[in-house]
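Ligand-bound model needed. pyridoxal-5'-phosphate.
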Amino acid sequence: MAGATVAPVAEAPLDADALGMGREEMRRLGYWVVDSVVEHVASVASKPAIQARLPGDLLDWIGATLPVEGADALESLELLRDVVLENMQHGDHPRYFARVPGPSSFTGIVGDWIATGFNAITASWAGGSGPTTVELVVIEWLRTLLGMPAGTEGVLASGGSMANLLGLLVGSRERGHGVVYLSDQTHASITRDLLAIGFTPECVRVLSTDATCELSPDALRRSIEQDRSNGEVPILLVGNGGTTNTGTVDPLDALADIASDEGMWFHVDAAYGGPAALCEPGRARLAGLERADSVVLDPHKWLFQPYDIGCVLVRHPGALERTFSMSPEYLLDANRLSGEVDMRNRTLELTRPARALKLWLTLRVHGVERIASAIQRGIDLAETAESILSNDPRWIVVTPAQLGIVTFVGAGARDGDHAGAAAAVAERGFAAVTSTTLHGRSVLRLCTINPRTTEDDLQGTLDVLAEELARVSAG
Ligand SMILES: *Cc1c(COP(=O)(O)O)cnc(C)c1O
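Prediction:
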């Protein structure tokens, strides 16, 4: 199991000329980093949820002079910790409700560190058989958790945007040229991905949604019918497995039926909501997801991983390699899980990190049940927020709590006031909340997927937000 041994040789130099350090120095810096991160994780709630500075100030503090001679390592690390890393969003803060939080777990953090420390690579089997196996295992776990059929393959990517790009590219290679359908609630990265892989705007149908924010199967059928009568070929359908705006899930079962009737590739963007399938209400909500041809999820959102890690799953064995293989003569093994896989042939990356290690460690250490209850907690928190909002005359709920997201407006607030109030709350540092636009109307939005968030955090944030909204509306 330990593999080959090597006869003892003199150790390679660890001196500064070889860009090395002695063991003591490595430990001194490494432990300092560990202590700083532990302190951050433990005390993040008492810091601002988000902080930004003026470009000129940051440049002054950080400095832009090319360092010809070296500087002190610890002093440089302090500059990173105390200036650089202070001025950003803390997606792991319990009152960070903006966009999509990044409540990374410590297991995910140390999993990432050990992969980085060993400079693990997952380009080829020969060069990374261990880390590749972990990636294949993690993909198999994700497939199982989403209920996709055996034989489904996948690959990790830097995030949802890139994973969507891979899935859409495979779909268009498998189905040829034609028209793609998506709703007006689909994430902006999908449209960008489609244009990047060669779709022209004339081939992209953006279907309007109603107050439910769901893609309507009837509207889809009508649009397809019209395109067919104009001689166009429908090839791709994009469904949402939890929109970023409102957490809405499209009627995936009905969409899967239409895609199969029409011979279209069905891609589901579950970058945000996919992990909700681990718990009962999420699984029920996402029914039909398992019928997709390709599914994207983002473990760096709701699977508690530090950036970056996204994933695409493709139900058709060999389809990823047909699209991305750089060695077309490569044999497609019958047994994809136990065979030798060169991950570079499933994606556009050649040199790629071992992103799977952190997720593998997190799942292995906590187990699916604990992770599922952490996800369930995020779903429950949004429901708690919704009930606080509906019992407070200062607020009106716009879309109910869905997969950890609730949207609302101030009673009597003008459209433009929400963004100002959200900015004022961020300025105070107490919490981070953002506004978004739904069907032309501005709304406030909470995304509550951090399991460390408490009910007091929700109540406190809504109180501060109401205060700032009243101030903005009066001013
Ligand atoms: C976040 C998100 C994306 C983009 O993912 P990145 O990891 O930010 O690239 C795509 N789709 C949805 C639904 C998302 O929530």
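Residues 100, 159-161, 164, 187, 189, 244, 269, 271-272, 298, 310 surround pyridoxal-5'-phosphate (CB under 6 Å).
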